[in-house]
Amino acid sequence: MGGGAPTFRLEPPRLRTTEDPGEQRHTTWFELYFDLVFVAAVTELATGLAKHPSGVVFARFAGLFVVVAWAWTGFTMYANRFDTDDVIYRVAKSAAALAVAALAVQIPGVIAGHRGTVGFAAAYVVVRSVLIAMYVRARRHVRGEGRALIDLYTATFVLTTSLWLVSIFVPGPYRYVLWGLAIAIDLAAPPRAWQMLRTAPVVVSHVTDRFGTFFIIVLGESVVAVVAGVAGFGFSFESWFVACSCFVIALCLWWIYFDLADTSVLGRGVLGLVYLYAHFPLFAGVAAFGAGTKLAITQAAHAGLVVGTRWALAGGIAGFALALALLHLGADWTSPRDRTFLGRLALAALLIVLAAIGDGISPLAFVLVVAIAVLGQLLLEALTFPTGAASIWEPPELAEE
After folding, report:
1. Is residue 103 a contact partner of residue 164, using CB atoms and an 8 Å limit?
2. Is the pLDDT of residue 20 over 70?
3. Cα separation of the two ends of the chain
4. 343 and 328 in contact (C-beta within 8 Å)?
């Protein structure tokens, strides 16, 4: 950790995606610190969902999660292309981290529908303003195709941040309309931006490392939130059974994501955006699973799990499975008949049905079915060849021809 460049060095931003096609970049210590602040916001979202897992709260959870995840993605993609980790970059991101912490403080009130929307919007304006300032700085030093990309993002972010600022002064439900419009405009920008850097839109190794790191932090934080939430709770055999089963599920999710998820779509030009967008439901699903685990443990001795718990637990994993199915289908060697792809769709379908009609199922049986299904998917993927032709499923009559 020592022996590096001077701590207070100055190094202008530059377009790093075209420097060395074979470069292997990984998450820096400062990026890890920055992630932890965002995970605090994710934890507040999951906690709010666990307190009131109603349909309305689920909708707020999903919407706010996209907002938070998109803010994290904005800084991640900037770092992928222009990060030089100098003192100005660190100070700017530290200011953004402080604003994210302020944003996280407002989440409990916003997700409960009581208060905090003004504070949330104001904090988000600061977060986005810092990112805009970083792009403005990069524009002074970057030329060529990198500058065109900077201009696109700067114009888009100025427009959407203005909508967030205006929303502070707009009453009631219209505030949420402006938030949704701003996020929709933001999400429409990357396809055009990636076309501007056709040869190397991103440094693939850095993106997979950043998203993988954030995944493991969200998954780990979900476990921590469960432990903190049930501390002092009088555990019975049923509670222990549910807790251990959910631990096995979490392990399987980790195993599938890091060992068996195909991320090659990221290297396929604009199609690589599938990787970026698919991680929104994936991250949200993992966070919802953590909230559902906490609820299931406390309801283990009941006749059945309440509907919100079922959807958080099983629905969260279904979102995870569907997101990975998209990633897998995006690989250049796969097809819709691929065993892994079909297995993930089947897993998601099973869990959605289970969440919808599982009212009469005991908590132990419900969690056991989910655990067996996820473990079965892990085994299916582990035993499926990683090459396209060998992993294509065909009906028996076709296979015999």
Report:
1. no
2. no
3. 60
4. no
